[in-house]
């Protein structure tokens, strides 16, 4: 994982919540937080894969959502999608069932298997579930400097469409990887693409990297 202090995120040279960008490791080195070991395959694809329901709003204490607009949208839409796909009680399917007891207002619905004994209304005086914002960071609130609005991001110094892609081609890929990239692009463009589209494609790849664009055009023209 990588960590960017909140104050630095306000003025970083490109918007750190832009999904088309990565945080350079030179600025924010990777921090090892654990190891994920894949040691077995599912035995039943439907029950263990097709019915899996992951949602970014399933957060443990101390972790909150960033101003990433895609993440914020997914935080409320994923759970709705799971209910439509798997039913109101998708969280009781074994592949989704939490390891620790969960107290919620959930009750009834098709295919429910857990009996409800606690009151499912609030407020109540019978020991039922209730919200406790004090358990989260700053009572569940955080400052976003106006980022949580329905408008485009404000562009910053390095917020462009080509910079990081060019860095990937020139500084990250080796010669063999660059050769494979050119070969793949050329192969697709030689499949009956019209001349106007070809010109746009050549310009596109020149914007990423001038040499790459020239190699792509040469490969298509001379192939």
UniProtKB/TrEMBL annotation:
Query: One Pfam family from the UniProt entry?
Result: Catalase-rel
Q: Where is each Catalase core domain found?
A: 1-130
Q: Name one GO molecular function term.
A: heme binding
BP-aspect Gene Ontology terms: hydrogen peroxide catabolic process; response to hydrogen peroxide
Please give the superkingdom of this protein's source: Bacteria
The enzyme class is: oxidoreductase
| InterPro entries cross-referenced by the UniProt entry | Catalase, Catalase_core, Catalase_haem_BS, Catalase_immune_responsive, Catalase_sf
Q: What is its EC number?
A: 1.11.1.6
What keywords were assigned to this record?
Heme, Hydrogen peroxide, Iron, Metal-binding, Oxidoreductase, Peroxidase
Offer a single GO CC term for the protein: cytoplasm
Family, similarity comment: Belongs to the catalase family.
Name-wise, this protein is catalase
Task: Say which species the protein is native to.
Answer: Litoreibacter arenae DSM 19593
């Amino acid at each position: 994982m990588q960590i960017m202090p909140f104050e630095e995120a306000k003025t970083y040279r490109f918007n750190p919540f832009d999904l088309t960008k990565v945080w350079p490791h030179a600025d924010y080195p990777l921090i090892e937080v654990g190891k994920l070991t894949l040691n077995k395959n599912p035995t039943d694809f439907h029950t263990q894969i097709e019915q899996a329901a992951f949602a970014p709003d399933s957060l443990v204490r101390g972790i909150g959502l960033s101003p990433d607009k895609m993440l914020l949208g997914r935080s409320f839409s994923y759970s709705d999608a799971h209910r439509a796909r798997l039913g109101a009680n998708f969280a009781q399917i074994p592949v989704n069932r939490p390891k620790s007891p969960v107290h919620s207002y959930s009750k009834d619905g098709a295919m429910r298997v857990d009996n409800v004994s606690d009151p499912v209304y609030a407020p109540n005086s019978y020991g039922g579930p209730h919200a406790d914002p004090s358990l989260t960071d700053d009572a569940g609130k955080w400052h976003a400097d106006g980022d949580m609005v329905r408008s485009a991001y404000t562009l910053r110094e390095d917020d462009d469409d080509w910079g990081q892609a060019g860095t990937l081609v020139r500084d990250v890929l080796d010669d063999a990887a660059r050769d494979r990239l050119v070969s793949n692009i050329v192969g697709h463009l030689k499949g009956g693409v019209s001349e106007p589209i070809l010109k746009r494609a050549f310009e596109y790849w020149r914007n990423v990297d001038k040499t790459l664009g020239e190699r792509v055009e040469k490969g298509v023209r001379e192939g």
